Amino acid sequence: MKKLVALLLAVMFVLPAVALAGTVKLGFINSITGPEAPIGENLTNGVTLAIEDLKAKGIDVDLVKEDDTGKPDKSLAAFEKLATRDNVVGIVGPYTSATANADAKLAERYKIPVIIPAASKEEITRQGFKWVFRVSGTTGDYAGVLIDLATTLGKPKTMAILNENTDFGVSGAKSAKEIAEKKGIKVVFEEAYSKGSPDYRSTLAKVKATNPDLVFMVSYVADAILLMRQSREIGLSPMAFLGAGAGFSVAQFAKEKEISNGVFSSTQWTEEAPWAGSKAWFKRYVKQFGKAPTYHAACAYESMMIMGQAAAAAGGDREKTREALTTGHWNGILGEVRFQDYDGYQNQRKAVMLVEQVQNGKHETVWPLKDAVKKPIWPFPGWKK
Amino acid sequence: MAAQRCGQEAHLALPGLEKVTQFEGAGSKDHVPGQLTSLLLAPCSYFLYYMIVFFQSLISGILIGGVYALIGIGLTIIFGVMRVINFAHGDILMIGMYMTYFLFTVFHIDPFVSIVITIPLMFLFGAFLQKVFINRALNALPQNQILLTIGMGLVMSNTVMLAFTSDYKILTTTYSSSSVEILGISVSEPLVVSFAITVAITAALYWFLYKTDMGQAIRATAQDREAAQLMGINVKRMSIIAFGIGSALAGTAGALISPTYYIFPQVGSVFTLKAFVITVLGGMGSIVGATLGGVLIGVAESVGGVYIGSGWKDVIVFILFLLVLLFKPSGLLGTSKD
After folding, report:
1. Structural domain harbouring B128
2. What distance in Å separates the CA atoms of residue A185 and residue A178, rounded to the nearest whole number?
């Protein structure tokens, strides 16, 4: 009799566990439509690949996708829905710094683990939050690698910073200024513009008048193209144009080769990234979606892989998932990922950055030199008439 | 010229200046970073640089202002004739942008040439809107008319979003980033062309409104709807024509901005607000006022962006707007009608 009860109890405990081990309910918030949609598409595709790979590992993910159109208010609503109505175990996303920064506070309130794949505003993981994890590097990482490249290849003395007045832009500009000044580069021009203006010529004329060696820009897609177009018009021609990821890293930007050739952009991942499986993953992505991925896709893929594995191992418990994220480490296309506390950050991955340069209408990895496929073209060759 | 020469001396005095990049413009060679300039030459080169920056922003402002004027004129004609504020104006402009985009990408018609197609199509579209929707609300309460036009705008932007998603579209022509240099100031080629087209269209419009019978009938309707009707003018028809012209102008403005801007379904809201500011600034219903208002707003944005900060553009525009309303409530060229 005792044995029978024991057996029954065992079955009762084990069966649901077996049934559950396979399925986890996760949320994904992204800029599926809206101004950041061209980048958002990369994140969506990255997550799609991650879901396939998790399935191959025996983890079925019941994914709830939400579109925040890049707006913080919509992102908060989406987050709340996922946390309360859909009752997901963990959330990956959202994409932009403004939305991620807003959602981070909700993650704390609802005690739900969230992995931020690609937003880089420094403060997001500097607020003492326990539930917020970030795979993405910070704006400090973005600026640091570009300034490293510039000071190694040339002797720039002055820099102009032009950024959009969003969370991402302001944080990017601040990091760039700090790092430049540490390296002895004088920041001679600084301005935050409000995005969506048809005319940046007057601002660019002012940049040109300060004759900077480096022009550092932080922008999303449409403005990146507009700014470079108008730089060409104005004849702004520094030693180098440095773009902090985002708008400067998408294929749509590279394709406009008349204005994008020679522009450097920092990135967290490329096809040539020195981590196992990068090349194969790149090929698989291209085959499946018909276009090349940006680093956002790789970051989103890795974020979802980590979240899926952690949540499954924790048996769908939010607190245990959080613990798994804090203590675990993963190896994937971004190399080894650990969430660490350092420099005032909490649960932040130490990102290893690369630099791409647009050459002949294509992004080519040019930095660090050991991983480079093409030699960096330095200085900026000037505009062709 | 003196300033130019002075700049060159400054350049010669600086063999240590390591610039490997090539500059095309005389202006860009000449200005020199303050640190390296010898004290004697400093005031001179600074003067030059301030002049270049000032004229650069002034010219960009005027050129952009021309397109703004076109948007404002469209709104003011509609208001003048019907006393209806068209809050769908920016969305009509957005339709013009999409039309230009598809004419360019699908049929390879240059954006500036495609206005030949855009103008009549947008005219018909506007006439249709007037006949089917606005005409029915002409005698309704003003707030109902406002709701009607806002609603029309929402339907337009959301239909476009449904059809083409909210992704940004960028139209790249061979001349999208071309410029000509005049005395160190670079002038955007597409903006010059669009400004020229704007001037031509505005001139044609003036001729039409002041010299033709139909134009005079439209103006008569604008002055006094009932009296015009008593004089045998078909005011309903005039209204349809006026809304058609207004829409065609908005659509043309959209076409003209397309090569240098980007296109997405909600782009209209930016321009609706701008058009509204321009018309109120110039005086509701005044075509000359709208022309002036457009250029003024363009220059205020551009010059203000340089001297105060480009993040403050909108603030500058609205302070200007409030000041005008404070001292001349009927707008710059408006006559108050009660």
Report:
1. 62-327
2. 10
Who contacts B4 (Cβ-Cβ below 8 Å, separation ≥6)?
A: B26, B30, B48, B183, B184
Q: Chain B neighbours among A 51-80 (CB < 8 Å)?
A: 69
> CATH number for the domain including B275?
1.10.3470
Q: Taking residues A156-181, report their average pLDDT.
A: 93
Query: What's the CATH fold of domain A140-267+354-371?
Result: Rossmann fold (3.40.50)
Does residue A188 contact residue A156 with C-beta atoms inside 8 Å? no
B70 belongs to a structural domain: yes
Which residues make beta-bridge pairs with A365? A356
Domain count, chain B: 1
Amino acid identity, residue B245? I
Query: Tens digits of per-residue pLDDT, B213-252?
Result: 999 999 999 888 889 999 999 999 999 999 999 999 999 9
> From the list B24, B64, B168, which residue is nearest A38 (CB)?
B168
- Identify the bridge partners of residue A242 per DSSP, sorted by sequence position: A216, A264
pTM for the full predicted model: 0.78
In this complex, do B270 and A196 lie within 8 Å of one another by their Cβ atoms? yes
Residue A328 dihedral angles phi and psi, to the nearest 5°? -80, 170
Tell me whether the omega of the peptide bond preceding residue A117 falls within 30 degrees of 0, making it cis: no
SS3 B83: coil
CB A50 within 8 A of CB A301: yes
Q: Say if B247 falls within a structural domain.
A: yes
A-chain CB neighbours of B62 within 8 Å are none
Instruction: Nearest by CB to A201, from B56, B167, B309: name it.
Output: B56
Q: Where are the domains of chain A?
A: 22-137+274-348, 140-267+354-371
The three-state (H, E, C) secondary structure of A77-142, written as one string: HHHHHHHHHCCCCEEECCCCHHHHHHHHHHHHHHCCCEEECCCCCHHHHCCCCCCEEECCCCHHHH
8 A C-beta contact, residue B283 and residue B289: yes
Q: A201 in contact with B at a CB cutoff of 8 Å?
A: yes
Do the two domains A22-137+274-348 and A140-267+354-371 of this chain adopt the same fold? Answer: yes
Neighbours of B173 (CB within 10 A): 16
Q: Sort out which chain B residues have CB atoms less than 8 A from A197's CB and list them.
A: 301, 305, 310, 313
- Within 10 A of B297 (CB to CB), how many other CB atoms are there? 27
Least Cα separation, residue B267 to chain A (angstroms): 9
Q: Determine, yes or no, domain membership for B240.
A: yes
> Tell me: the pLDDT tens digits for A262-306?
999 999 999 888 898 999 999 999 999 988 899 999 999 999 999
* pLDDT tens-digit readout, B274-329: 899 999 888 888 888 999 999 999 999 888 888 887 778 888 888 888 998 898 88
The nearest CA of chain A is from the CA of B145 a distance in Å of 29
Q: Which CATH architecture has domain A22-137+274-348?
A: 3-Layer(aba) Sandwich (3.40)
Instruction: Please tell me if residue A374 touches chain B, with a CB cutoff of 8 Å.
Output: no
CB-nearest to A380 from B21, B31, B166 is B21
